[in-house]
Amino acid sequence: MITATIGKIFLEAYNKKFGSSYDAKSFFVDVYYPLFFDSNKYLQWIQNSPFVQMEKGQKVETLTQAERKEKLQKFIQKVEDCNKPDASIAPGFPASEEKEFATTSGQVTNLNFSTSKDDIYLSWLGSSLGVGLQGGLSILFSDKQILLDLFDGWQLYRKVINENDKMKGNQVNTWNGQWLAHCYDQGNFFIEQPMAGFYPLESTKDGMSVATQSWIKVIIGISKQFKNPKMTGFVYNLGQTNTSVGFIPFSLDHIRRPIQLYAKLFGVDEGKKAEDLWGTEKGFRTCCQKGAIGIEAMQPKGLRQYMTTDKDKTVKLPKNDEKQIINFHTYQIWLLAMLNNEELWTKSKEFAQALQDYVNKDKKLSTKRGNFVKNILTVTSKKTFLSALSEIAPDIESFNMIEENAKIIHMMPSDNVPYYLTLIRFHYAGLSNRNNKQALQLELN
After folding, report:
1. Are residues 427 and 376 in contact, defined by beta-carbon separation less than 8 angstroms?
2. Whole-angstrom Cα distance, residue 260 to residue 269?
3. DSSP code string of 125-146
4. What is the rounded CA–CA span in Å between residue 392 and residue 399?
5. Rounded to two decimals, what is the model's pTM?
6. Mean per-residue pLDDT pooled into runs of 10, the chain (445 residues)
């Protein structure tokens, strides 16, 4: 099972880093158990496991060290006596069913794999390395450095729980998501003070808990930390009803692309503020249905409505409203990233300026000319664009610019045309805002 595989990769990396020679059982007993279960608050709750099976009157919060040790011995004995592991002693394995897998089974197969005792212990390590995200899904990465970094986060999670009486336990996977986003936040993470500026907690009616992190913050962090073009993660959910989404490739170079473009065109500081807006159009589960995570998954929420002409749409951008300006810029950058050609930024901007000059040249004809330009800005296909363009061609001074953009559109793959036309609309709207010194309005029929 995948949890055992991830656990094995982690243990090998751990032994190499620290010069140790732990096998699966000895690491579980000497390192993992003291960290996760030898306390009045657990870091993880594995349903039906010996660690959560309480005798009458027992509660995790009041267990003595001797009672916790007894549960460890019961777990070890159950592993030794096991012929066919189930989810109660091997997280991620199928639930115990004689005839078929229950809905609480995850990551199962009908292939007849042999399972060793080591695999059982390793599955605990692997399950604790899952990165929990908003929406209930988690990711298991096989990259050794990520796994070692998650282990560092475990130590801090235990420290936070021990120092905060109101803090609930059993959230190691949720903590993993917060920790990765934090420790890969370049410029804001300091290894000498790993908790500086890090407060992933939220208040609940019962005390404090770890808030779930968005998938995009985690993936952006990984894309900045690692120069790999791609990285694969296993996406899943383990709960009352388990789900295996599958192995999903993350195109890290594509994830980096809009972030780099934003910093290049609008500055690093503003780009940092824009990171919360990426990947907000669709949920993580929906993005995974595409089979891979790349630029398309980075789409900011709200842009799609301006790429069609079904209804009138107006974007208002008050001149001094930083939040709306940043949101507007993310729209532009995502469109440019989808086009995968930086030259089109300049070409589309120059074309938008040519349209502005055409409208403003003759005040007596500004309304008529404005309607012609509006027709150009509301089209979504090559044919209608070229047709609308022909209406202004005889009267426009920047004919070479018009001709060049006609060629660009004509030669462009059809799938890219809506992105380019929408980018022109946003450039035109930006120019209108500066020229009129009023609220930015982009009207689409």
Report:
1. no
2. 12
3. HHHHT-EEBTTS-EEEE--HHH
4. 9
5. 0.88
6. 94 98 98 96 92 89 94 94 80 63 48 75 96 95 98 97 93 97 92 94 92 96 95 88 89 96 94 94 94 96 80 53 89 96 95 88 76 85 87 80 89 92 90 54 40
